[in-house]
Here is the input.
Amino acid sequence: MVERADSGATSTMKAAALRWAGRWEGNARGRPAWTREWVLAAIAVLTAGLLAFHRAVPNSVGHLGSLLEAFLPWLGLVVVVLLGLALLRRSATALLALLLPVAAWTYLFGGLLLPGAEPGAHDLVVVQHNVSDENTDPAGTARALADAEPDLIALEELVPLALPVYEKTLAADYPYHAVQGTVGLWSKHPLTDARLLDIKPQGIAEAWSRGLGTVVHTPHGEIAAYVAHLPSVRVRASGLASSWRDESAGLLGKAIAAEKLKTVILLGDLNSTVDDRGLAPLTSRMNVAERGFAFSFPAAFPLARIDQVMARSATVGHIRTLPATGSDHLPVAARITWG
Here is the structure.
């Protein structure tokens, strides 16, 4: 009788152990399955928080907020990975939590995936391109940009040896152009009042001319056009080095705010995405592209759109990239609706 009692007790203990085994899954660290489900859910909630409240991430240390915002759309990949893991684990908790980052990403970027509006009678097609000061085929680059048949072509990193090539190649279709320093604008419509924009940060001692303002006389009225190339940023161990870019963006924003013409367009390599708070002096005053991601840099594997088209008192419709040229940037083209 004693042996039978011991045997029954042993059987009961084994049954209990088997019931718990399904939840613990016997992994090397002894972590229960439900714990891993909550870890996935927590990461999903954190991702949603970063998307919805990215402005709350401080810039005081290493410009971490700007660094996050430069790659903000890519948090969508985190959501995809979490979704795969949640399906693999068959975790209802994680799947429910994933609704939060999906909703946040869709709110921020879902509209960029929609088709653009139909062209309007007063539309302007513009092309923006950092042609690179190391471009070995400026003539081929100019022809590729002209093939898109835009009304305006804005170029940055124009160097003295390449400038005559761009002027000659574009002359037939773009008889009007203005150049200041290393930036220029080519136009099918007359240009007047071309001037240098002083957007040079105080910390830069050498010669530095990267801003241009002019007036475009279109068949439907005058538009102020600005071309700019803001300072580069660097990702370092200490974070994002963007102080010069931010200062230059502030100077450019003041120049645009002082512009007397109602309609303004800005084309340039701004070395930042429109989500980056470093461009707030511009994005707070101007409309950005409503459709399209158009990641433009680096050309070999584009991770972000730092080549921008913005407008005041006008709408920037679908923005897209053009085929690669001899530059480390991809050209971008956009349609501007106004009037």
Notes: The longest strand covers residues 221-229.
